[in-house]
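About this split. The held-out portion is used to measure sequence recovery: a designer receives only the structure tokens and must propose an amino acid at every position. Recovery is the fraction of positions where the proposal matches the reference. Here is one held-out target exactly as it appears in the evaluation file.
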């Protein structure tokens, strides 16, 4: 039996939806809306980056705060049970992340880490600025040296 009125139901659905929207999906949607094209999870690159921009030699990682030990409240949380298991594991994740960025740099790639806690709706405008600064001019023209300037792939982000 459904005891929710329509208002309550839609509020609950909104909550479920926002919980299901993974940080990586939010970043992908934003990057796409900004007019950039990318590949996903390139296993040939160190760390299998989440978003790869081959023409720009740039990659973006979307990191969960807990797993990758962000210095934020979410990242500082330590499970109460078996800390002797979690601590070295999480430390290992952090060391591996640093190593991956160094390896990418050696191969001529630059990496940007976007933290889970900075991907909420309130952060979208700031995140868009960061991405544009990191990725450079929008549209495919930049990646193929001006041979395709007519595709108009510069969807503006509305900053909402
Ligand atoms: Zn965080």
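Reference sequence for scoring:
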């Amino acid at each position: 039996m459904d005891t929710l009125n329509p208002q309550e139901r839609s509020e609950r659905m909104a909550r479920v939806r926002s919980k299901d929207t993974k940080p990586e999906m939010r970043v992908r949607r934003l990057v796409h809306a900004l007019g950039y094209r990318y590949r996903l999870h390139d296993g040939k690159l160190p760390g299998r980056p989440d978003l790869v921009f081959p023409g720009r030699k740039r990659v973006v990682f979307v990191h969960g705060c807990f797993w990758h030990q962000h210095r934020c409240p979410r990242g500082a949380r330590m499970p109460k049970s078996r800390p002797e298991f979690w601590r070295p594991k999480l430390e290992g994740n952090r060391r591996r992340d640093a190593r991956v960025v160094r390896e990418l740099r050696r191969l001529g790639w630059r990496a940007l880490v976007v933290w889970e806690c900075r991907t909420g709706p309130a952060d979208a405008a700031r995140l868009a600025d960061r991405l544009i600064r990191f990725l450079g001019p929008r549209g495919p023209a930049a990646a193929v040296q001006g041979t395709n300037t007519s595709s108009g792939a510069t969807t503006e982000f509305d900053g909402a």
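Annotator remark: The pocket of zinc ion is lined by residues 65, 70, 72, 74-75, 115-117 (CB under 6 Å).
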